[in-house]
Automatic annotation (TrEMBL):
The keyword Signal applies. SUPFAM superfamilies: (Trans)glycosidases, Fibronectin type III, Galactose-binding domain-like. PANTHER family: ENDOCHITINASE. Residues 1-30 form the signal peptide. Its EC number is 3.2.1.14. The lineage of its organism: Bacteria, Bacillati, Actinomycetota, Actinomycetes, Kitasatosporales. Belongs to the glycosyl hydrolase 18 family. Chitinase class II subfamily. Residues 173-254 form the Fibronectin type-III domain. Gene3D superfamilies: Galactose-binding domain-like, Glycosidases, Immunoglobulins. This is chitinase. GO terms for molecular function: hydrolase activity. Residues 264-597 form the GH18 domain.
Length: 597
């Protein structure tokens, strides 16, 4: 079906068949048109405003794309567009959907707002409904949405058939574009209203990044100390104006944003649920140098349950363990001093596979219970081993469909929405799950590869706007190919420089130049290192730590590897672990303090 042309009488009759609606006359049908813009999602989300939607190439009903939207605990994944209509006129809204509890509806009709829905559509199912506009109604909002936490749904070929309205001409370009408050990750913009505009499209470096209804916007997700160019276009039903004159702004050096982290932070894991050769360290005894303290570990009752429990180290194993009351008091004291205390989920022994929506929901509720009981600042995702792997048909990190991946993303988004902007989210994947993705992603085009290769990439990408810190474990790793197409091995600054450069530069996934994992902001990245030779393979001496930081933040002492930039806003260092650093006379902490102090 060509969605750009008016519907013919036969198709209109088909849409109305079985609905009890009298078919329109031939003369009326001749004037009817499909008013939905980009109803087949062939142009991405152009024309649609979605809270949690993207376009996918499979499954589709027709054409090459369809909508995929994933509801969360507080978001029904609504996608909507506003359409100009004639007053006192009859319209038919129709579309095809897949999934559970999927809705298609129209609001602002001026009469009775309508919707159609399906409880379960394992294959494409058509939904349709009709409405009559009120005597003064000129704009109607059509929408589709799912239901809270029920999993992704798909939609395609959405149409609104009825009398068309001459849209007139696009408005003139906006004038007076200017910048306002500039931070390390955002730029505020404002401009003079354009006559006849119903909305405005905001462009960053030539790419549309927002559509707003007013004459101001704040562009977020920017990198510190980076220059950006902005333009604005005015939009109405006839289309989009030419772009405005360009204004430029350079973001500041950064300082932590909503999470209040210092410009350079020291992150460490505290053995809170077990003891080993390093001995137990009481939370109150952790020095003030540590800005983020990850309580290790919350673990599941079984691999697939999603039921996470955090058990304090028993006195028989940790004779000097503090009471629950003292432990909670120490958390409050650390927070009063500006530190962040997180629950870390997973670890070497805590395999977590959220293979079902039930496990996802249990994960959210059980993690929330831990956070609430101890008054924690957020969550660290430390999934290792076989927690994350990709199905054979899951080849696009931007549009994952493997349940353990999709459910983890959904669960973390729900937690972020529940606790708000101050919620601290960190991740500690191994190099196998991230940088190895430069060469291999999942089982590969011809199969046979390890399905875990690069499996963290869709999680990081989907959550990058909510991500406070990524600190990849640059230890216990085999050789990894860097952006210079050379293999780099643990044991010196070179490995840390190459691995971190990949995160800050971005890289093609599985060698596909058309499928690039975008760079993270430097304030989102810390370098993961073992605190001592006892803590893990890949320990490097303090001098190598200093070389790493010199190269990445000042581009000196780089050795043989040529970085693709200089990042003075690099957030800092992470180590396994605080306990092992104490065992080694605080060598790692003293190196950090000496460099950034």
């Amino acid at each position: 079906m060509d969605r750009s042309r008016p519907f013919v009488a036969v198709l209109t009759a088909t849409l109305l068949a079985g609905t009890g609606i009298t078919a329109l006359s031939s003369a009326a049908r001749a004037a009817d048109a499909d008013l939905a813009r980009n109803g087949g999602f062939e142009s991405g989300l152009d024309g649609w405003t979605c809270t949690a939607g993207t376009t996918v190439t499979s499954p589709v009903r027709s054409g090459s794309s369809a909508l995929q939207a994933t509801p969360a605990g507080s978001d029904n994944a609504r996608c909507a567009q506003t359409v100009t209509v004639k007053p006192d006129s009859q319209y038919t809204l129709a579309g095809y959907v897949r999934g559970s509890y999927v809705y298609l509806g129209a609001g602002g009709t001026g009469t009775t707002d309508v919707s159609a829905w399906t409880q379960s559509a394992p294959n494409w199912q058509q939904l349709s409904t009709t409405f009559r506009t009120g005597p003064s109604t000129t704009r109607v909002t059509i929408y589709t949405h799912g239901w809270y936490g029920t999993g992704a749904y798909h939609a395609d070929d959405i149409s609104l058939v009825g009398p068309s309205v001459d849209p007139g001409r696009p408005p003139a370009p906006p004038t007076g574009l200017r910048t306002g408050t500039v931070t390390s990750s955002s730029v505020a913009l404002s401009w003079t209203a354009a006559s006849g505009a119903t909305s405005y499209a905001v462009y960053r470096d030539g790419v549309k990044v927002q559509t707003v209804s007013g004459t101001s916007a704040t562009v977020t997700g920017l990198s510190p100390q980076t220059a950006y160019a902005f333009q604005v276009a005015a939009v109405n039903d006839a289309g989009e104006s030419a772009k405005s004159a360009t204004v430029t702004a350079t973001t500041t050096a950064g300082g932590g944003g909503d999470t209040d982290l210092p410009p350079h932070a020291l992150v460490g894991y505290l053995h809170a649920s077990f003891a080993n050769g390093s001995g137990y360290t009481r939370l109150a005894d952790v020095p003030d140098s540590w800005d983020v303290i990850d309580l290790a570990f919350g673990e599941p009752t079984s691999v697939t349950s999603g039921d996470i429990r955090f058990d304090r180290c028993p006195a028989a194993e940790c004779p000097n363990v503090e009471s629950d009351a003292d432990f909670k008091a120490a958390i409050r004291a650390k927070q009063a001093a500006g530190k962040k205390v997180l629950i870390s989920i997973g670890g070497q022994n805590g395999q977590v596979q959220l293979s079902t929506t039930a496990a996802r929901d249990t994960f959210v509720s059980s993690v929330s219970k831990i956070i609430d009981e101890y008054g924690l600042d957020g969550l660290d995702i430390d999934f290792e081993g076989h927690s994350l792997s990709l199905n054979a048909d899951d080849t696009d990190f931007k549009n994952p469909k493997t349940p353990v991946i999709v459910n983890l993303i959904s669960a973390v988004k729900t937690l972020k929405a529940r606790y708000g902007a101050d919620f601290v989210l960190t991740m500690a994947p191994e190099t196998f799950f991230v940088q190895l993705g430069y060469q291999y992603y999942g089982t590969g085009k011809w199969g046979g590869q390890d399905p875990r290769a690069g499996a963290y990439l869709p999680v990081i990408h989907a959550l990058r706007d909510a991500l406070t810190l990524l600190h990849v474990q640059d230890y216990n790793s085999g050789p990894i190919m860097g952006l210079d197409n050379q293999y780099h091995s643990m044991g010196g600054a070179d490995f840390h420089i190459a691995m971190t450069d990949m995160l800050l530069t971005g890289f093609p996934v599985a060698g596909d130049a058309n499928n690039v994992f975008p760079p993270l902001r430097p304030d989102q990245v810390a370098i993961g290192m073992p605190a001592s030779t006892n803590a893990g393979n890949g320990h490097v001496a303090p001098a190598e730590v200093v070389k790493t930081l010199d190269c990445l933040t000042r581009k000196v002492n780089c050795g043989s590897y040529a970085t693709h930039g200089t990042w003075p806003a690099l957030r800092g260092l992470m180590t396994w672990s605080i306990n092992w650093d104490r065992y080694s006379n605080w060598e790692f902490q003293r190196t950090f303090d000496g460099y950034f102090g």
